[in-house]
Structure prediction request, 345 residues.
Amino acid sequence: MKAVFLTDIKKFETQEISMPVLINDDDVLIKIKMVGVCGSDIHYYKTGRIGSQIVEFPFITGHEAAGIVEKVGSKVKKLKHGQRIAIDPAVYCGNCDQCLSGRENTCRKLVFMGAPKQKEGAMCNYVILKEHNCFPINDNMTFEQAVITEPLAIGIYAVNKSKPNPKDNIAILGVGPIGMSVFHYLRTKEIGDVFVTDRINERLEFSKQLNPKYTGNPSKANVVEEIKLLQPLEMDVVYECSGDPEAYKHAIELLKPGGLFVILGIPEVDEIALPIHELRRKEITILNIRRQLNCTQKAIDLLSSGRINMDKLVTHHFKMEETNEAFELVSNYRDGVMKAMIIIE
Prediction:
Protein backbone atom coordinates (compact mmCIF):
# COMPACT_ATOMS: atom_id res chain seq x y z
CA MET A 1 0.00 0.00 0.00
CA LYS A 2 1.00 3.65 -0.34
CA ALA A 3 1.95 5.85 2.60
CA VAL A 4 3.10 9.45 2.79
CA PHE A 5 6.09 9.81 5.13
CA LEU A 6 7.47 12.97 6.67
CA THR A 7 11.14 12.22 5.98
CA ASP A 8 12.64 15.50 7.20
CA ILE A 9 11.60 19.00 8.19
CA LYS A 10 9.21 20.26 5.48
CA LYS A 11 9.68 17.18 3.30
CA PHE A 12 7.17 14.41 2.46
CA GLU A 13 7.78 11.32 0.32
CA THR A 14 5.28 8.72 -0.91
CA GLN A 15 6.49 5.15 -0.41
CA GLU A 16 5.20 1.60 -0.76
CA ILE A 17 4.88 -0.31 2.53
CA SER A 18 3.27 -3.54 3.72
CA MET A 19 -0.43 -3.51 4.46
CA PRO A 20 -1.24 -3.84 8.20
CA VAL A 21 -2.95 -7.01 9.42
CA LEU A 22 -5.37 -7.62 12.27
CA ILE A 23 -3.62 -8.87 15.40
CA ASN A 24 -6.13 -8.46 18.23
CA ASP A 25 -9.75 -9.60 18.17
CA ASP A 26 -10.99 -6.04 18.76
CA ASP A 27 -8.98 -4.58 15.86
CA VAL A 28 -10.60 -2.85 12.89
CA LEU A 29 -8.85 -2.51 9.52
CA ILE A 30 -9.87 0.79 7.90
CA LYS A 31 -9.43 1.90 4.31
CA ILE A 32 -8.64 5.60 4.60
CA LYS A 33 -10.42 7.87 2.12
CA MET A 34 -9.79 11.40 3.37
CA VAL A 35 -7.37 13.12 5.77
CA GLY A 36 -7.49 16.70 7.00
CA VAL A 37 -4.36 18.77 7.60
CA CYS A 38 -4.40 19.89 11.24
CA GLY A 39 -2.39 22.57 13.01
CA SER A 40 -0.57 19.92 15.05
CA ASP A 41 0.51 18.24 11.79
CA ILE A 42 1.94 21.59 10.74
CA HIS A 43 4.01 21.77 13.95
CA TYR A 44 5.60 18.40 13.10
CA TYR A 45 6.12 19.52 9.48
CA LYS A 46 7.78 22.84 10.42
CA THR A 47 9.70 21.96 13.58
CA GLY A 48 9.61 18.17 13.98
CA ARG A 49 8.07 18.40 17.42
CA ILE A 50 5.33 19.56 19.76
CA GLY A 51 6.96 20.03 23.16
CA SER A 52 8.40 16.69 24.27
CA GLN A 53 6.81 14.85 21.33
CA ILE A 54 9.73 14.71 18.90
CA VAL A 55 9.46 13.11 15.46
CA GLU A 56 11.81 10.31 14.50
CA PHE A 57 11.97 10.38 10.69
CA PRO A 58 10.47 8.82 8.64
CA PHE A 59 7.03 9.29 10.18
CA ILE A 60 3.41 9.13 8.97
CA THR A 61 1.34 12.12 10.10
CA GLY A 62 -2.40 12.73 10.07
CA HIS A 63 -5.19 12.10 12.57
CA GLU A 64 -8.26 13.88 11.16
CA ALA A 65 -9.52 11.03 9.01
CA ALA A 66 -12.46 9.15 7.56
CA GLY A 67 -12.73 5.89 5.69
CA ILE A 68 -14.42 2.54 5.13
CA VAL A 69 -14.34 -0.57 7.32
CA GLU A 70 -12.33 -3.22 5.46
CA LYS A 71 -12.14 -6.02 8.04
CA VAL A 72 -12.97 -6.54 11.73
CA GLY A 73 -11.73 -8.79 14.53
CA SER A 74 -13.88 -11.53 16.04
CA LYS A 75 -14.99 -9.45 19.05
CA VAL A 76 -16.07 -6.41 17.01
CA LYS A 77 -19.88 -6.36 17.06
CA LYS A 78 -21.02 -2.91 15.95
CA LEU A 79 -19.09 -2.60 12.69
CA LYS A 80 -19.14 -4.48 9.42
CA HIS A 81 -17.31 -4.54 6.12
CA GLY A 82 -18.13 -1.59 3.87
CA GLN A 83 -19.39 0.80 6.56
CA ARG A 84 -18.36 4.43 6.10
CA ILE A 85 -16.92 5.86 9.31
CA ALA A 86 -15.58 8.93 11.04
CA ILE A 87 -12.54 8.32 13.23
CA ASP A 88 -11.61 9.34 16.76
CA PRO A 89 -7.80 9.08 16.62
CA ALA A 90 -7.18 8.53 20.35
CA VAL A 91 -6.75 4.90 21.45
CA TYR A 92 -7.30 4.62 25.22
CA CYS A 93 -6.54 1.58 27.38
CA GLY A 94 -9.82 1.38 29.32
CA ASN A 95 -8.07 0.07 32.44
CA CYS A 96 -6.10 2.91 34.06
CA ASP A 97 -7.35 5.23 36.82
CA GLN A 98 -8.20 7.93 34.25
CA CYS A 99 -10.23 5.63 32.02
CA LEU A 100 -12.01 4.05 34.97
CA SER A 101 -12.99 7.52 36.21
CA GLY A 102 -14.46 8.44 32.81
CA ARG A 103 -11.49 10.50 31.61
CA GLU A 104 -10.40 8.48 28.59
CA ASN A 105 -9.00 11.64 26.97
CA THR A 106 -6.29 11.75 29.68
CA CYS A 107 -5.65 7.99 29.65
CA ARG A 108 -2.28 7.12 31.20
CA LYS A 109 -1.49 4.86 28.24
CA LEU A 110 -3.13 6.94 25.51
CA VAL A 111 -1.88 6.21 22.00
CA PHE A 112 -2.68 8.91 19.49
CA MET A 113 -2.71 8.35 15.74
CA GLY A 114 -0.14 10.51 13.99
CA ALA A 115 1.80 11.32 17.18
CA PRO A 116 5.54 10.55 17.48
CA LYS A 117 6.43 7.28 19.24
CA GLN A 118 2.73 6.49 19.65
CA LYS A 119 0.96 5.42 16.45
CA GLU A 120 1.57 6.07 12.77
CA GLY A 121 -0.88 8.47 11.21
CA ALA A 122 -3.62 8.24 8.61
CA MET A 123 -1.72 9.44 5.54
CA CYS A 124 -1.78 5.97 4.02
CA ASN A 125 -4.20 3.52 2.43
CA TYR A 126 -4.98 1.44 5.52
CA VAL A 127 -4.77 1.78 9.31
CA ILE A 128 -5.77 -0.39 12.26
CA LEU A 129 -7.74 1.07 15.16
CA LYS A 130 -10.13 -0.20 17.82
CA GLU A 131 -13.91 -0.44 17.61
CA HIS A 132 -14.27 2.52 19.99
CA ASN A 133 -12.38 4.70 17.49
CA CYS A 134 -14.87 4.07 14.67
CA PHE A 135 -18.18 5.92 14.25
CA PRO A 136 -20.53 4.96 11.41
CA ILE A 137 -21.81 7.93 9.40
CA ASN A 138 -25.07 8.40 7.55
CA ASP A 139 -25.24 7.96 3.79
CA ASN A 140 -25.96 11.67 3.40
CA MET A 141 -22.61 12.62 4.96
CA THR A 142 -19.51 13.21 2.85
CA PHE A 143 -16.05 12.05 3.85
CA GLU A 144 -15.12 15.73 4.24
CA GLN A 145 -17.88 16.13 6.82
CA ALA A 146 -16.73 12.95 8.56
CA VAL A 147 -13.21 14.40 8.84
CA ILE A 148 -14.59 17.67 10.24
CA THR A 149 -16.21 15.77 13.13
CA GLU A 150 -12.75 15.55 14.72
CA PRO A 151 -12.15 19.31 15.21
CA LEU A 152 -15.87 19.93 15.79
CA ALA A 153 -15.86 17.39 18.63
CA ILE A 154 -13.09 19.41 20.28
CA GLY A 155 -15.15 22.59 19.99
CA ILE A 156 -18.20 20.83 21.42
CA TYR A 157 -16.18 19.48 24.35
CA ALA A 158 -14.66 22.89 25.11
CA VAL A 159 -18.05 24.62 25.16
CA ASN A 160 -19.73 21.88 27.18
CA LYS A 161 -16.92 21.85 29.73
CA SER A 162 -16.84 25.65 30.06
CA LYS A 163 -20.66 25.92 30.36
CA PRO A 164 -21.20 29.52 29.20
CA ASN A 165 -24.33 31.21 30.54
CA PRO A 166 -27.04 32.56 28.19
CA LYS A 167 -25.96 36.21 28.47
CA ASP A 168 -22.20 35.67 28.63
CA ASN A 169 -20.01 37.82 26.40
CA ILE A 170 -17.41 35.65 24.74
CA ALA A 171 -14.13 36.17 22.88
CA ILE A 172 -12.59 33.63 20.52
CA LEU A 173 -8.89 34.28 19.90
CA GLY A 174 -8.00 32.50 16.67
CA VAL A 175 -10.68 31.43 14.21
CA GLY A 176 -9.02 28.61 12.32
CA PRO A 177 -10.78 25.23 12.28
CA ILE A 178 -10.78 24.84 16.08
CA GLY A 179 -11.93 28.39 16.76
CA MET A 180 -14.64 28.07 14.13
CA SER A 181 -15.72 24.75 15.66
CA VAL A 182 -16.17 26.52 19.01
CA PHE A 183 -18.04 29.36 17.29
CA HIS A 184 -20.36 27.04 15.36
CA TYR A 185 -21.32 25.13 18.48
CA LEU A 186 -21.83 28.33 20.47
CA ARG A 187 -24.30 29.41 17.79
CA THR A 188 -26.51 26.43 18.70
CA LYS A 189 -26.91 27.95 22.17
CA GLU A 190 -28.24 31.15 23.71
CA ILE A 191 -25.26 33.40 24.45
CA GLY A 192 -24.34 37.08 24.49
CA ASP A 193 -22.06 38.80 21.99
CA VAL A 194 -19.07 37.04 20.42
CA PHE A 195 -15.84 38.93 19.75
CA VAL A 196 -13.25 37.42 17.39
CA THR A 197 -9.55 38.05 16.78
CA ASP A 198 -7.05 36.54 14.35
CA ARG A 199 -3.82 37.62 12.64
CA ILE A 200 -5.10 36.38 9.27
CA ASN A 201 -7.61 38.73 7.65
CA GLU A 202 -9.13 35.96 5.50
CA ARG A 203 -10.07 34.06 8.65
CA LEU A 204 -11.69 37.14 10.14
CA GLU A 205 -13.76 37.51 6.97
CA PHE A 206 -14.63 33.82 7.08
CA SER A 207 -15.88 34.12 10.66
CA LYS A 208 -18.38 36.81 9.68
CA GLN A 209 -20.76 34.11 8.41
CA LEU A 210 -21.56 33.54 12.11
CA ASN A 211 -22.15 37.25 12.83
CA PRO A 212 -19.60 38.15 15.49
CA LYS A 213 -20.03 41.47 17.29
CA TYR A 214 -16.41 42.36 16.49
CA THR A 215 -13.52 41.10 14.37
CA GLY A 216 -9.99 42.43 14.78
CA ASN A 217 -6.42 41.67 13.76
CA PRO A 218 -3.97 42.06 16.69
CA SER A 219 -1.15 42.68 14.22
CA LYS A 220 -2.91 45.81 13.00
CA ALA A 221 -5.03 47.06 15.90
CA ASN A 222 -5.22 47.21 19.68
CA VAL A 223 -7.88 44.53 19.85
CA VAL A 224 -8.11 44.58 23.64
CA GLU A 225 -8.82 48.30 23.69
CA GLU A 226 -11.33 48.06 20.84
CA ILE A 227 -13.24 45.19 22.44
CA LYS A 228 -13.36 46.97 25.81
CA LEU A 229 -14.81 50.06 24.12
CA LEU A 230 -17.64 47.90 22.80
CA GLN A 231 -18.05 45.93 26.04
CA PRO A 232 -16.69 47.87 29.05
CA LEU A 233 -17.67 45.10 31.48
CA GLU A 234 -15.26 42.79 29.63
CA MET A 235 -15.56 39.11 28.73
CA ASP A 236 -17.13 36.32 30.73
CA VAL A 237 -15.33 33.61 28.76
CA VAL A 238 -12.32 33.68 26.43
CA TYR A 239 -11.49 30.69 24.22
CA GLU A 240 -7.82 30.75 23.16
CA CYS A 241 -7.64 28.74 19.93
CA SER A 242 -4.53 30.12 18.24
CA GLY A 243 -1.56 28.97 20.32
CA ASP A 244 -0.17 32.50 19.95
CA PRO A 245 1.67 33.47 23.19
CA GLU A 246 0.46 37.08 22.88
CA ALA A 247 -3.13 35.83 22.77
CA TYR A 248 -2.70 34.45 26.30
CA LYS A 249 -1.93 37.98 27.51
CA HIS A 250 -4.89 39.35 25.55
CA ALA A 251 -7.19 36.75 27.10
CA ILE A 252 -6.28 37.79 30.64
CA GLU A 253 -6.65 41.49 29.79
CA LEU A 254 -10.05 40.89 28.21
CA LEU A 255 -11.55 38.83 31.02
CA LYS A 256 -13.68 40.38 33.73
CA PRO A 257 -13.04 39.48 37.38
CA GLY A 258 -14.20 35.91 37.89
CA GLY A 259 -13.91 35.20 34.17
CA LEU A 260 -12.99 31.90 32.53
CA PHE A 261 -9.90 31.41 30.34
CA VAL A 262 -10.29 28.30 28.15
CA ILE A 263 -7.11 27.04 26.46
CA LEU A 264 -7.44 24.97 23.27
CA GLY A 265 -4.61 26.24 21.06
CA ILE A 266 -1.27 24.41 20.83
CA PRO A 267 1.73 26.79 21.05
CA GLU A 268 4.99 26.07 19.28
CA VAL A 269 6.90 26.92 22.48
CA ASP A 270 7.06 24.87 25.69
CA GLU A 271 6.53 27.74 28.14
CA ILE A 272 4.53 30.98 28.12
CA ALA A 273 4.84 33.68 30.80
CA LEU A 274 1.54 34.89 32.26
CA PRO A 275 0.80 38.02 34.36
CA ILE A 276 0.24 36.05 37.54
CA HIS A 277 -0.81 39.00 39.72
CA GLU A 278 -3.52 40.05 37.28
CA LEU A 279 -4.70 36.45 37.14
CA ARG A 280 -4.85 36.36 40.94
CA ARG A 281 -6.45 39.77 41.44
CA LYS A 282 -9.13 39.05 38.86
CA GLU A 283 -9.60 35.52 40.25
CA ILE A 284 -9.56 34.14 36.71
CA THR A 285 -10.15 30.43 36.27
CA ILE A 286 -8.01 28.63 33.68
CA LEU A 287 -9.56 25.61 31.97
CA ASN A 288 -7.34 23.45 29.77
CA ILE A 289 -8.90 21.34 27.03
CA ARG A 290 -7.30 18.00 26.19
CA ARG A 291 -8.89 17.14 22.84
CA GLN A 292 -12.41 15.86 23.49
CA LEU A 293 -14.37 13.29 25.45
CA ASN A 294 -17.40 11.44 24.09
CA CYS A 295 -18.30 14.21 21.63
CA THR A 296 -17.68 12.54 18.25
CA GLN A 297 -21.22 11.17 17.93
CA LYS A 298 -22.63 14.59 18.85
CA ALA A 299 -20.52 16.15 16.09
CA ILE A 300 -21.81 13.56 13.59
CA ASP A 301 -25.41 14.21 14.62
CA LEU A 302 -25.07 18.00 14.32
CA LEU A 303 -23.46 17.82 10.88
CA SER A 304 -25.70 15.09 9.44
CA SER A 305 -28.85 16.89 10.61
CA GLY A 306 -27.69 20.19 9.12
CA ARG A 307 -27.98 21.96 12.46
CA ILE A 308 -24.33 22.86 11.97
CA ASN A 309 -22.99 23.34 8.44
CA MET A 310 -19.21 23.55 8.17
CA ASP A 311 -18.89 22.63 4.49
CA LYS A 312 -17.32 26.00 3.66
CA LEU A 313 -14.48 25.25 6.07
CA VAL A 314 -13.03 22.81 3.51
CA THR A 315 -11.30 25.13 1.07
CA HIS A 316 -8.73 22.91 -0.67
CA HIS A 317 -8.25 19.31 -1.86
CA PHE A 318 -4.96 17.56 -2.73
CA LYS A 319 -3.88 14.11 -3.91
CA MET A 320 -1.48 12.02 -1.80
CA GLU A 321 1.35 12.91 -4.18
CA GLU A 322 0.62 16.60 -3.57
CA THR A 323 1.11 16.45 0.20
CA ASN A 324 4.16 18.74 0.10
CA GLU A 325 2.12 21.38 -1.73
CA ALA A 326 -0.75 20.97 0.74
CA PHE A 327 1.42 21.46 3.81
CA GLU A 328 3.32 24.35 2.26
CA LEU A 329 0.03 26.11 1.55
CA VAL A 330 -1.43 25.48 5.01
CA SER A 331 1.76 26.35 6.92
CA ASN A 332 1.99 29.69 5.12
CA TYR A 333 -1.78 30.40 5.31
CA ARG A 334 -1.90 31.02 1.56
CA ASP A 335 -4.89 31.31 -0.76
CA GLY A 336 -7.42 31.81 2.03
CA VAL A 337 -6.95 28.24 3.26
CA MET A 338 -9.07 27.12 6.20
CA LYS A 339 -8.99 23.33 5.97
CA ALA A 340 -7.08 21.35 3.36
CA MET A 341 -8.01 17.73 2.66
CA ILE A 342 -5.76 14.98 1.31
CA ILE A 343 -7.64 12.48 -0.87
CA ILE A 344 -6.31 8.98 -0.19
CA GLU A 345 -6.43 6.67 -3.23
User: Anything to note?
Assistant: The first strand starts at residue 2 and ends at 8. The mean pLDDT is 98. Residues 143-162 form the longest helix (20 residues). The chain has two domains: 2-136+310-343, 152-288.
